[in-house]
Amino acid sequence: MSTILKENLIGLDTHRVIKVYLPPGYNDSKRSYPVVYYCHSIFSTAEKLLEDGKLVNVLEQAFANKIIPEFIFVVADYSSPTTGSLYENSPVSGRWLDFTVHELVPFIDKQFRTISHRDSRAITGDFMGGRGALKLAMTHPEVFSVVYALHPVATGAGYIPWAANEVNWKKIHQAKTFAELAGDGRAQMFVAMAQAFLPNPHRPPFYCDFWMEPDNGEPKLHTENTRKAQAGFLLDQSLEESAPNLQQLRGIAFDWARYDPTPTHVYSNQAFTRKLEDLGIEHEAEEYRGTPWNKNWIANGRVYSRMLPFLGRWLVFEGKE
Amino acid sequence: MSTILKENLIGLDTHRVIKVYLPPGYNDSKRSYPVVYYCHSIFSTAEKLLEDGKLVNVLEQAFANKIIPEFIFVVADYSSPTTGSLYENSPVSGRWLDFTVHELVPFIDKQFRTISHRDSRAITGDFMGGRGALKLAMTHPEVFSVVYALHPVATGAGYIPWAANEVNWKKIHQAKTFAELAGDGRAQMFVAMAQAFLPNPHRPPFYCDFWMEPDNGEPKLHTENTRKAQAGFLLDQSLEESAPNLQQLRGIAFDWARYDPTPTHVYSNQAFTRKLEDLGIEHEAEEYRGTPWNKNWIANGRVYSRMLPFLGRWLVFEGKE
Amino acid sequence: MSTILKENLIGLDTHRVIKVYLPPGYNDSKRSYPVVYYCHSIFSTAEKLLEDGKLVNVLEQAFANKIIPEFIFVVADYSSPTTGSLYENSPVSGRWLDFTVHELVPFIDKQFRTISHRDSRAITGDFMGGRGALKLAMTHPEVFSVVYALHPVATGAGYIPWAANEVNWKKIHQAKTFAELAGDGRAQMFVAMAQAFLPNPHRPPFYCDFWMEPDNGEPKLHTENTRKAQAGFLLDQSLEESAPNLQQLRGIAFDWARYDPTPTHVYSNQAFTRKLEDLGIEHEAEEYRGTPWNKNWIANGRVYSRMLPFLGRWLVFEGKE
Amino acid sequence: MSTILKENLIGLDTHRVIKVYLPPGYNDSKRSYPVVYYCHSIFSTAEKLLEDGKLVNVLEQAFANKIIPEFIFVVADYSSPTTGSLYENSPVSGRWLDFTVHELVPFIDKQFRTISHRDSRAITGDFMGGRGALKLAMTHPEVFSVVYALHPVATGAGYIPWAANEVNWKKIHQAKTFAELAGDGRAQMFVAMAQAFLPNPHRPPFYCDFWMEPDNGEPKLHTENTRKAQAGFLLDQSLEESAPNLQQLRGIAFDWARYDPTPTHVYSNQAFTRKLEDLGIEHEAEEYRGTPWNKNWIANGRVYSRMLPFLGRWLVFEGKE
User: Fold this and answer.
1) Which residue in the set B159, B230, B278 is minimally distant from D157, CB to CB?
2) Torsional sign, CA A103, A107, A108, A114
3) Which residue from C273, C277, C288 is facing B286, i.e. has the nearest CB?
4) Smallest Cα distance from D68 to chain B, Å
């Protein structure tokens, strides 16, 4: 039951499901454990992430094979009546960063035997949740000290300019409800972005402005809104100001699949790691063979062979500095 | 009324519409004119290409401003009950190269005052029609001596491997008619490709094999079919053998838009020009700001400021060598 | 004899050679002409640019074929004891923007029958001079209204981060004179950049700081200097603030060669045009087959078939609005 | 003392140094061990590879931390009076593939307690040695069953066409001895390529043809030689015929650094993995942050955290299937 998420204009359910995976030794020990938080992507939920059992399989294999010492794994529900959280604070679509830091983490620390210290907290996630993981790392180094983002999106402006993107703006401008956008994931996504980064509580039905505004019935680039939305959504735009935060982290890594059907995500991640490099921020940044969805939760996949060893190297476990 | 196109298994209409634009001076002169043939793209027709009047506007402006001397412009109908011609000879989806060379060109030469010589014939087209223009140039230098392809596709394997492409193969494998693929342009396109390059007259309903074949109900990469389809469809694969043909041309040019929503087309064209370079084939190859659809038929656009001056430079006009 | 360039710490010659090409009709007419200014690249001079006669050939061919009405062509000498002007104002390496705007242009307007108005002045150049042309356009729309940059460099951070660039920093840090860097164009270039963007009049011998500073004898990334140098040198970093200036121009174009042996230049130009697009700034941006040096001053080359028609379209000539 | 390498025209020393690292437990056990062969790069030797001690450190750390069971590590000397082996059979520059397979491997199997079976032999290497590792895997699956190539080169034609490459061909054509090319690594390399792939025993001083041949004193593209040299040197050109061999391997992996100062290597590796994908060949292909030289032999580097776990997963060790 979130208090923070009450503040929104899109009908968010303030009862949030939280899925917690306790490691095999938890019940028989009195030890405290590090916690790995996971941000799921848009059009997903905490339940969907776990339903096919692959995620738990990978964790159990990793603990069995001593790839990493035991930890607690937490994934909250970041879904919404629109596309789901973009992991931002917005008066229209919810203050998701605040929810994570001020409600979720304290709740977990209270309910379970966690090591309640940044050195023992990691933030992870995939796709839009990868953006979430990086954003939380960039803004809350006092809470998390290790980050691993699996194929994050929105790390940069990408290959195709926003002005040249194919979006059905007319449909968006004419829609009276979000339901009218059903079946057009792209239109839904662009409305969610506008709600998060161009909120305008006085402009129903979506309570936001757009970077393509109607102009005599035709969509027309609004450069000021474009700049504002990019400044908020694209992580590279706040990288310079976040650099001191990132310098405090113990470990930073992200990876991405070469064959995302939206190559702009690939291009953006390549640009993002370059910017980190010139800011002198140590990190890992690997591009791998695969799609954003087919290599994470498999045997010897990205999580098992890359993310978990990385977390094991940088998180502080009990009895270890 | 095409005899050649009678041979097909997809229900082609053998009555083909041919649109001919005669230049302003044609009726009042006795001169003969060069002919520029244009290959339209899939999901289009000769009529659609002309219906908004922009094409004729550009030609008239160019003649008025002496950008190029007058010529005859011809666009035949290459549509089909599936997606339209891929500009190939196939026992299943039609022998379109033969139709063009053995029926269309002789027909035009018979009906109009053309200069009926390769030096005065150019082949042009856009998108899949750009592929057609290049393919005709690669195979019939005895008919055409100048080629300008506007944003051709299928010039190379592209950025995303076929094995990693997102296609609804299950739907294709289960479909009983082409109509069942309505609304899924990607599935339609991949069937058309299979019909052109993996024809199999004994396998209804589509009379073709696939590079993803069903394997216990799941699509599975069939590497032999993949190689065969790529060898046929992708122009770079036959470039080496076509090199002597291309060496005979008077002028070769193609261009492409940077912001094709399918960046694999951009990547392929970049690779194609490199291959031409190493084969020692002189040509122009420009990448421009725009999408494949928004720069061709406008004032000072690609056709007006790039293609027409190029054709004017290399075609032989009457009274000029 | 420049007054402005007296202020420098690298021994600039204040006598500057200015090459002026008057069009064929100049002497026999009383008309006034537009002026096209040209910025040459580093390691070059006004004299070198003209010495093989190709440049004048191209201009004469263009006038003869009425590709563009006649204009006056001016190229000043931007060479220096180091690598030449980077087209910036620096207390160490010279105030070159000021020299161009406050000395060169007024001098030309005084000596020749020019149309002394921004509508009839274009700024052009190649490579580092292409950067100069864009920089002057971004900062002085009151002087120039048309810009065409041939393969500009330093338009963005490029593919390889500065932190990962191969430069012999030890040699730079140990050098006592610029002459010690002879034969290492890369080292010379990086010193010139530091002199322009990290000037430090109190630090001989080069009077500048570096983004790799010596740290116990080893070069170490200095992130603050890196940010400062990038902010100054890379044009995309000041694009947002220059947008209102660029919006005032009549015509903006640049192009670049696909096969620059330093692909980071290609990558940067691709990123630069995208940024312009999202800022809503109309422009042309073509990538062509060639190197930065082999397509400009040839028959049917970039200058003849692209730059001059563009200038002709946007400059105001006498008797024409 | 190699018999095979006697056949050459460049003065190869037939006494070859072979460096063998025996694992810590070798002397105190009677076990047999898998063997990992390593191909060093051009301008290097077996001794240089080992001289700074980092390589042995990484191996010892890996054995100590049980990253991989113990194995024997072998690196032979592939240097030459020119640039070193390109890992090919050439009548001019030596039959290096034959040397490796018919002399080196049998010699090692005779001298040490190896598991003399393909299942327990891996071939590895970096840069040109990475090419060597892949080439040996593509041609000798009866000898090696696991391959890991660190930043291989020559896997494809790359970003810049050979015809547009900057090479001092005049110097090459005029040189009377290899020594005259001293200091120009690029010229040396291109001669070595020509000796390997365009051998011509009747044409001193280099006993080879070139893809840029002199033509009235000017270098001119020779397209037939270009095709022949590319077909031999570029691994992607023989990938289709090698596919059945690669299908027999237990494990295939390669990786590459994003910041190779020659980005054509990066581009080629990206194209190479795509081709493998469409041939249905399972493999790993990662692009990482770094240069080709700064991430291999460090703590948590590519060898320690990527290559050795991969070898451990696929090699057959004693008492393990």
Assistant:
1) B278
2) positive
3) C288
4) 32
Helix/strand/coil for D284? strand
Q: What pLDDT sits at residue A178?
A: 94
Rounded to the nearest angstrom, the gap between the alpha carbon of residue B234 and the centroid of all alpha carbons in its chain is: 12
- pLDDT for B134-159, tens place per residue? 999 999 999 999 999 999 999 999 99
Arithmetic mean of pLDDT, A237-264: 97
Count Cα neighbours of D309 within 13 Å in the Cβ-side half-sphere: 14
CA closest to C275 among chain B residues: B289
In the predicted structure, residue A320 carries a pLDDT above the cut 90: no
pLDDT tens for C93-150 read 999 999 999 999 999 999 999 999 999 999 999 999 999 999 999 999 999 999 999 9
Name A79's Cβ contacts closer than 8 Å, sequence gap at least 6.
A44, A45, A85
Average pLDDT of chain C to the nearest whole number: 96
Q: State residue D165's pLDDT score.
A: 86
Q: DSSP code of C83?
A: S
Nearest to C259 by CA among D297, B274, A127: B274
C-alpha span between D10 and A312 (Å, rounded): 52
What is the band of C1 on the pLDDT scale with cuts at 50, 70, 90?
confident
Q: Mean pLDDT score of chain D, rounded to an integer? A: 96
Chains that contact D by 3+ CB pairs under 8 Å? Answer: A, B, C
Q: How many C-alpha atoms does A224 have within 13 Å on its Cβ side?
A: 2
Say which amino acid occupies C145.
S
Q: Is the dihedral of CA B287, B293, B298, B304 positive or negative?
A: positive
In this structure, what token pair is assigned to residue A311? 């977390």
- For chain D, say whether C185 makes contact (Cβ under 8 Å): no
CA separation, residue B317 to residues A234, B35, B145, C88, C275 (Å): 54, 10, 13, 51, 43
Q: Mark yes or no for CB contact D259/C291 under 8 Å.
A: no
CB neighbour class for B307 (10 Å; exposed up to 12, middle 13-18, buried from 19):
buried
Q: Is the pLDDT of residue B234 over 60?
A: yes
Distance separating alpha carbons of residues D179 and D191, to the nearest angstrom? 12
Q: What is the DSSP string of A13-73?
A: -S---EEEE--TTSTT----B-EEEEE--TT--HHHHHHTSHHHHHHHHHHHTTSS---EE
ipTM of the complex as predicted: 0.95
- A161–B261 CB contact, under 8 Å: no
- pTM, two decimals, is 0.96
D159 to each of B161, B264, C255, D224, how far by Cα in Å? 18, 15, 19, 20
CA B307, CA B309: separation in Å to the nearest integer?
Answer: 6
Cβ-defined contact of B223 to D243 (cutoff 8 Å): yes
Confirm or reject contact between C278 and chain A (CB < 8 A): yes
Nearest CB to C261 within list D161, D166, D291: D166
- Tokens of residue A120, six digits: 């023992």
Which chains form contacts with chain C, at 3 or more CB pairs under 8 Å?
A, B, D
The phi, psi pair for B21, rounded to 5°, reads -105, 120
Is 90 exceeded by the pLDDT of residue C320?
Answer: no
> Which residue positions in chain D have pLDDT lower than 70?
320-321
Mean pLDDT of C79-86: 94
B58-109 pLDDT, tens digit each: 999 999 999 999 999 999 999 999 999 999 999 999 999 999 999 999 999 9
Contacts of A286 in chain D (CB under 8 A): 286-289
Q: Which of C280, C284, C281, C275 is nearest to C307 (CA)?
A: C284
